[in-house]
Design brief:
The complex is a heterodimer of chains A (146) and B (437). Chain A is an alpha/beta fold and 146 residues long. Helices cover 46% and strands 17% of the residues of chain A. Classes of the chains: A alpha/beta (146), B mainly alpha (437).
Chain lengths: 146, 437
């Protein structure tokens, strides 16, 4: 087989693999999903970052919990050394808590609670003996008992 | 203007600024042409200097470290530019329409990824727990964040991971003067664009036609196994970029090209090692291949000099991390399992999970990839890059046997995306097999 014929054959074989491969890759873009993303972006783009996160995937496991965290973050006293969050103990909650309060250290249910850390208590139950600091959405900020 | 649009503009300006500065410094690493490859390297150089500047600022309180580094980089690029004969790309042959079609497909891939990445604030678990958390903490803290590296309650943030990406996040947020993890996602389509520029430029100067180089770029740009909303914010996309920089530099150095290849190996080695621990692994594999090629007499490279260029920057990056942030063990692995009688069963469990989760569902794409591999011809540079990828895949597939939480857990959550990060190198290797005869 001549060199030219060999090159031609190689090109044809390459195109016969590359073009279908491009279609396989492009098929991963589902029109329904693209539409949903566009609607999501159009709805949330005018809103502040906190609201954009509220509508996003990282808070989907419990959006009220994120609302509580953001509400607590806004009402933190200035001199706190860290935040002990009393809420759900899932991995998603752990990640969101740490991220939301950064650069302050924040941990879900630390034992013991380090000195100087404030407690953000999610839900209606208030641990006895703890000092109330402020009400936040779906919870409260409290100083733990020494 | 909307809240998001304002932030997006600020981050676009910050990224453009860093990219342009980096581009101006690439004369110390690459010849004048091809410009596309220099442009791609520009983002890597700019980002690396911004991250190093942030680290120096943190460690010794010099807030103008980035400015000093840029001044030094510009001086070096003017004083010690790479002097090499301009590369001559192979003459244009055949019709132009394939180039136009593949080019459009490549641009479409970048735009689609940008759309996926920018739909909402970065959200993946590892972004919140590791990369974004450290970046946000570095940005917001004035005196360091020791709790992330010393407090066992924060072990989940993997204090043993390199901090190049978090430092880059903090640096960009400082330039943009705000933390907006939605707008900052713009960095990721920029990483993709830079990866494609490097891929295209490298392939063109190594003899591939414009159509082949653009086809490679188009296929890579549309690979959602790597360029997805989920992986945006995590280390795999920048790692894939660093892998390509390192592998293409190594390919040049193995062929003893006197066009700054050794300098690029050193730069890429430090970038890869500072991005993720897998970067260190690729450096080690590159080193082993360098020695094997030298032993077999298959390379004209000076193995000793190349070994130093590979190892010193990566080792320095790892040593500085351990000295400043502490020597933390690899949290996910138990090396004691190497001597355990369970090892063969664990290896098998990892392998079967890998085939079930990744190979079988992707059979059509993999079959077409095999077709592409067979359609090409044997080219030494391409073969070496394929061997490098194969060695890395072999290690990734074997490593789950040592996973603390079990082989299946590691294969499910990590192995697929880590292997996906090799896609740019594999694409370059495949495309080289179609370079001019």
């Amino acid at each position: 087989m001549s060199v030219i014929a060999r090159i031609h054959l190689r090109r044809t074989a390459a195109a016969a693999s590359a073009v279908p491969l491009l279609f396989v890759l492009l098929a991963a873009n589902r029109p329904g999903e693209l539409e949903r993303r566009l609607a999501h972006l159009a709805h949330y783009a005018p809103r502040p970052l906190e609201v954009r996160r509220l509508g996003g995937s990282s808070t989907a496991f419990d959006r009220r919990f994120y609302f509580f965290l953001e509400s607590a973050r806004r009402k933190l006293p200035e001199d706190v050394a860290g935040v002990a969050v009393f809420g759900p103990e899932s991995e998603q909650a752990r990640n969101l808590v740490a991220y939301q309060f950064a650069p302050l250290p924040a941990v879900v249910r630390p034992r013991p609670i380090p000195a100087g850390w404030i407690a953000a208590v999610y839900g209606p139950v208030r641990p006895p003996g703890w000092r109330h600091v402020a009400d936040v959405s779906d919870g409260a900020l409290m100083w733990p008992a020494p | 203007m909307t809240s998001f649009a304002v932030s997006l503009l600020r981050f676009a300006a910050a990224i453009s600024f860093v990219w342009l500065l980096g581009y101006a410094m690439t004369r110390a690493l690459l010849p004048v042409r091809p410009r596309s490859e220099r442009l791609g390297w520009g983002l890597a150089v700019g980002c690396a200097l911004l991250a190093v500047g942030k680290a120096i600022g943190f460690a010794i309180g010099v807030t103008s470290a980035f400015t000093l580094l840029v001044a030094l980089g510009l001086f070096l690029s003017i004083r010690f530019p790479v002097r090499a004969a301009p590369e001559t790309a192979p003459p244009r042959a055949g019709p132009r329409w394939p180039e136009i079609l593949w080019g459009v497909a490549a641009v479409l891939g970048v735009l689609l990824y940008a759309f996926h990445a920018l739909t909402e604030p970065m959200w993946a678990g590892d972004y919140l727990a590791i990369w974004g958390l450290k970046g946000k903490a570095f940005f917001g803290a004035s005196e360091g964040v020791p709790h992330l590296f010393e407090n066992p309650a924060f072990g989940f943030t993997h204090p043993e991971y390199p901090v190049g990406l978090p430092l880059l996040y903090a640096g960009l947020a400082s330039l943009a003067r705000r933390w907006d993890d939605h707008a900052m996602a713009l960095l990721f389509p920029c990483f993709l664009a830079a990866t494609l520029l490097v891929l295209y430029g490298f392939l063109r100067r190594r003899g591939a036609s414009a159509a082949v180089a653009l086809a490679a770029a188009a296929l890579l740009a549309n690979f959602q196994g790597l360029y997805s909303a989920f992986l945006t914010g995590m280390a795999e996309v920048p790692l894939a970029f660093a892998f390509l920089l390192l592998a293409t530099s190594l390919a040049d150095a193995w062929d003893a090209r006197s066009d700054g290849a050794m300098r690029r190996v050193a730069a890429a080695s430090s970038i890869a090692a500072a991005t993720k621990n897998e970067g260190l692994l690729l450096v080690v594999l590159g080193l082993l291949m360098t020695w094997a090629l030298a032993w077999k007499g298959r390379t004209r490279a000076r193995a000793g000099r190349l070994s130093l260029a590979l190892v010193v920057p990566a080792a320095l990056s790892a040593i500085v991390h351990r000295m400043v942030l502490g020597n933390h063990p690899l949290r996910d692995f138990d090396l004691a399992l190497l001597g355990s009688p369970e090892l063969p069963a664990r290896l098998w469990e990892g392998l079967s999970a890998f085939f079930t989760l990744y190979v079988l569902p992707q059979w059509a794409g993999l079959l077409l990839l095999a077709g592409l591999l067979l359609a090409g011809r044997s080219v030494p540079a391409g073969n070496r890059l394929l061997l490098l990828c194969a060695a890395a895949v072999a290690v990734y597939v074997a490593l789950p046997a040592l996973a603390v939480q079990g082989p299946e857990w590691l294969v499910t959550w990590s192995v697929g995306r880590t292997i996906a990060a090799l896609a740019p190198v594999a694409t370059a290797a495949l495309a080289l097999r179609f370079s001019a005869e």
